[in-house]
Design goal:
There is one protein chain. This protein has one domain: 3-Layer(aba) Sandwich (Rossmann fold). The chain is globular. About 35% of the residues are buried. It is about 60% helix and about 10% strand. The chain is of the alpha/beta class.
């Protein structure tokens, strides 16, 4: 089982260099083996906004269409979307313990609680956790 972080969904929405890997991962993994946090919806939406507004990679017309797909992409790709608020205290503790952002810690905390791995494209997170002997990252 995998906790899918927003980098997987974001790669599909903005069609970045990880697009094919992200799409293959979601297609090949059975939906019943994937979970995520509600935070992934907001983070994916923020990535879309950033690519349209700051990087100017996505035209406004396309942005208007893609913004409608964010929530359904995340929700329809996984078996369950967990509430971040249920993990906040442990996520704050783990953020301090592992010296990672609270955003990343929320996914890590869910994975630790459930005994799952985290699917992500975040190489720095993987390296940080490996330094601390926490090998729960899967990079599709």
């Amino acid at each position: 089982m995998y906790v899918v972080d927003s980098s997987i969904f974001s790669s599909i929405i903005v069609k970045d260099e990880f697009y094919d890997r992200a799409l293959n991962f979601l297609v090949e993994a059975r939906r019943s083996e994937l979970v995520t946090l509600d935070l992934a919806i907001i983070e994916t939406a923020n990535t879309l906004w950033k690519h349209a507004c700051i990087y100017k990679r996505i035209p406004v017309e396309k942005y208007r269409k893609l913004k409608l797909a964010v929530e359904s992409l995340v929700s329809n790709s996984v078996w369950r979307v967990y509430a971040t608020r249920d993990l906040i205290v442990d996520a704050l503790n783990n953020a301090l313990k592992y010296r990672i952002t609270v955003y990343d810690s929320a996914y890590i905390t869910l994975a630790l609680k459930k005994g799952y791995r985290v699917a992500t494209f975040d190489k720095k997170l993987e390296e940080r956790l490996r330094e601390q002997n926490l090998e729960i990252i899967y990079m599709p």
